[in-house]
Structure formats: structure tokens, C-alpha cells
From TrEMBL:
It comes from Luteolibacter soli. It comes from the Bacteria. This is Thioredoxin peroxidase. Gene3D superfamilies: Glutaredoxin. SUPFAM superfamilies: Thioredoxin-like (SSF52833).
Length: 208
């Protein structure tokens, strides 16, 4: 699996759905120079683990927005599937009330570019497309800075739900480093002590 950390996030243009609206030509490039981005992939609409994550992102959306972070979801479902899921109440397994964009990666090119596409495909000697497994996205998550550089990535297998609070913690750590030049040790949370390298390369703790 290629590591995208430290590299430019793969650019794309695709259809997306925001609440009741289907958007043509959606791109993360709109956030360059303006916002950080949490770009996350999930396997399928109308499933079991996925809505728990999407609802949790929505519950924390004000926290992300207060940090100038745009949250964007993506799966290999169509824009019509996204739209239908967004119209379905939570009590019936839907994600009604989710306000951030959901990208439709029906051609699977975005999942492939971010290297989160499960399954495999090839062309046989007869020129026929051969698919092994199911071509859907793993639970990938990418923290992209305002310059469009990936600063964090994590990929979970499909049965393993993510911690949305951990994504928020990593945003805090990145922004703390950018503002103060201090690095953040294990389990660091906003308000905790951070660290700064001294001139000999030995890290010492400093209070925020």
C-alpha cells in the first residue's frame, strides 16, 4: 500500500451529494488554501457499521468546522444511492440529517488513487475484465492540510469502525504543531503539554 503522507492528495472531480442536492464537478481542490480536509472512505450505503461513523461525524461537525476542517465522505455507490440514503430516517437505517458532502466514486478511480479499493481486477488474454473480490472501499481516512498535503492516513478493514474523536485529536495535533512548532507525544490532547526539540535533538516537555 503506497503511503500518501507527505505527498499531494490525489485530485479528482466527481459527483457528490449534499443533503438534498446532487453536485456536479465536486473537487477537494476548492478547499486549497482555505481549509483542512478530513476525507474518509466507507464501503457501502445502507449497511450497518457505516451509518454509525457517518452519524458520529455529523455529531462532531461543529467541532471540525470550528477548526476550519471540511469533512467529506466517499464510497463507490452512485449519487442516487447517496441521495436515497440521506432521505432515509436514522431509525430506518438511514443517514438523514448528515450535512457534509458524500462523493460518488462509481468508477472506483478515487478509491484506487487513494489505494483503499478492496478486491482486484485485471484483463485476461481475451481482453475481458476479470474481477476478484468486491470492488468497494475500505475504511480509509486522510487528513489533508490547507496546502493539499496528506498529513495522516489510516485504513481499517470493513468490520472495524473508526474513532471519529481520534480524527479530531489528530487535527488538533497538526494545528498545534503548525502554530507553536511543538511536537505532540502519544495520546496528546489539546491542552496537554507538548514537546520541543532542544539544540542537541533531545526533546523536553513544555507547557502550552
Amino acid at each position: 500500500m503506497p503511503v500518501l503522507v507527505g505527498k499531494k492528495a490525489p485530485s479528482f472531480t466527481a459527483k457528490a451529494v449534499v443533503a438534498n442536492t446532487i453536485i456536479e464537478g465536486f473537487s477537494l481542490d476548492q478547499f486549497l488554501g482555505k481549509k483542512y480536509v478530513i476525507f474518509f472512505f466507507y464501503p457501502k450505503d445502507f449497511t450497518f457499521v457505516c451509518p454509525t461513523e457517518l452519524h458520529r461525524f455529523q455529531e462532531e461537525i461543529e467541532e471540525f468546522e470550528s477548526r476550519d476542517v471540511a469533512v467529506v465522505g466517499c464510497s463507490t455507490d452512485s449519487e442516487f444511492s447517496h441521495w436515497a440514503w440521506l432521505q432515509t430516517p436514522k431509525a430506518k437505517g438511514g443517514i438523514e440529517g448528515v450535512t457534509y458532502p458524500l462523493v460518488a466514486d462509481v468508477n472506483k478511480t478515487i478509491s484506487d488513487a487513494y489505494d483503499v479499493l478492496a478486491g482486484d481486477y485485471d484483463i485476461d488474454e481475451n481482453g475481458t475484465l476479470v474481477v476478484r473480490g468486491e470492488l468497494v472501499a475500505y475504511r480509509g481516512l486522510f487528513l489533508i492540510d490547507r496546502e493539499g498535503i496528506v498529513r495522516h492516513q489510516v485504513v481499517n478493514d470493513m468490520p472495524l469502525g473508526r474513532s471519529i474523536r481520534e480524527a479530531l485529536r489528530l487535527v488538533d495535533a497538526l494545528q498545534h504543531f503548525e502554530q507553536f512548532g511543538e511536537v505532540c507525544p502519544m495520546d496528546w490532547n489539546r491542552g496537554d503539554k507538548a514537546m520541543t526539540p532542544d539544540h542537541e535533538g533531545v526533546s523536553g516537555y513544555l507547557a502550552n
